Amino acid sequence: MSTPNLGLPQLAADQAQKHVPVNEALLDLDALVQLAVLDRSLSAAPGSPAEGARYIVAASPTGAWATHADHVAVWLDGAWRFFIPGTGWLAWVIDEAALLAWNGSAWVDALSAVSAIQNLALLGIRTTADASNRLAVKSNGVLFSHDDVTPGTGDIRATLNKSAAGKDAGFTFQDAFSTRALLGLLGDDDFSVKVSPDGSTFYLGLSIDKDTGHIGLGGAVADALNALIVKGTAFLFDRETDDVRFTFNKAAAGDDVALTFQTNYSARALVGLLGDDDFTFKVSPDGSTYYTGFVLKKDNGQFKIPLAPKFSGYTNFDNYIAANTWTKVQFNNADSNDQSAFSGGSNNFTAPFAGPYALGFSLRFKANATVPTKVIATFYKNGAELGRGRAVSGAPTDDVTTYNLTVLTPLAANDVIDVRVNFATNDGYIESDHSHFWGHYVP
């Protein structure tokens, strides 16, 4: 008779030589308890084994071991004894420093044979884990692959969970155990990347707002209003091959697509397609009131300066001019009047800002009775003759003689320009609808 698990010999009633089965049982126990084998790769018995030497026979043995593949071989009393492993047996392989288990058909790594390892306090792989780092690994590489054994879904995810928004859930990258980069949810629920030159001072490189996915770069914190915020003193966008282009797209002509230039986050200039498809420059003194500097028309590339004063006025009645006195011509209507700098009520033009201006007039003479002996026409500035030329003739011809003058002159802000004439000896008229006064700012 023998025991059911190790097959140890048992004593029979009235058995002679009882010491024999007892000794046999003790030898078997000595061979199998706390099993540690010298090697598991031998296919033939080694020469001159030590008493009690134990081996796991290789899968394709020869010689004395030929029929004992995977058995435990023990050298006892000058002979090999073989033991067939039972499921769950453990064996320490000394030359490999490996713990094996018999799974019923093969010797396998003992840990891999365990279906679940739960609630380990610490795990160190080629290093020592501690209370701060309960999992510690030393390796040139760490691989996490999708489950193709079960098989799984084909996905692979690593999850980092924190207890509250104010905590960290992230990866730390170190140089000689001094931190150089942090990646994750760092002190809030926005995604951040920070770097450090020394492990104590950190600079924000990337911020992604959790509510919108908006991005902040170069130390800028992402927010819900701006899809991209970048902080820096200089920016380089380099070509990939030959060209480099930036594209700004809007949904409809009535929308804006523009660059905004700000002072302390208050807009001072807008450049782009502003409310239409013409290319426009606008400026602002306060971020709320805007003035259009110039416009490039989309249809023809025409350059317009809407805020530069431009006007063309005319008189719609015959202006009576008394003899021998300087008289203002009453240009009381406007064909055009950008910036309302021309006044039909006051019959003059007021410069809205300092700069060079082109001014001109064309006056047609109309007789009353006897024509004047001389006619002089000129510009007046602030009630005095401008002094930039005169249009002069002797005795004019009724409804024929025309007086023209064009000047380019600097004006100060609020200078007032009007046109005046002087008829020598006899009176007359400046004819309606054929007499004009015009001017514009010269950029």
Summarize this entry quickly.
By secondary structure, the chain is mainly β.
Unreliable segments of 5+ consecutive residues = none
What is the CA-based Rg, rounded?
Answer: 52 Å
Instruction: Quote the CATH topology of the largest domain.
Output: Jelly Rolls
Using the coordinates above, name the CATH class of the largest domain.
Answer: Mainly Beta
Oligomer: single chain
From the helix content, strand content and strand pairing, which structural class follows? Answer: mainly beta
Strand percent estimate: 35-45%
Euclidean distance between termini CA atoms:
120 Å
- Helical fraction equals under 10%
**How many strand elements?**
34
CATH architecture label of the largest domain: Sandwich
**Overall form:** rod-shaped
Mean pLDDT: 91
Structural descriptors:
443 residues; mainly beta; seven-stranded antiparallel beta sheet; rod-shaped
Note down, in words, how this protein is organized:
- By secondary structure, this protein is mainly beta.
- 3% of the residues lie in helices and 39% in strands.
- The protein has 1 helix and 34 strands.
- It has one helix spanning 19-32; strands at 36-37, 54-56, 72-76, 79-83, 90-93, 98-102, 107-109, 123-125, 135-137, 168-175, 178-186, 191-195, 203-208, 215-217, 228-230, 256-263, 266-274, 279-283, 291-296, 303-304, 310-314, 319-321, 327-328, 333-338, 342-343, 348-350, 355-367, 374-381, 384-385, 391-393, 402-411, 416-424, 428-430, 436-441.
- The longest helix has 14 residues, at 19-32.
- It is rod-shaped.
- It starts with 18 loop residues before the first helix and ends with a strand.
- The model has no long low-confidence stretch (mean pLDDT 91).
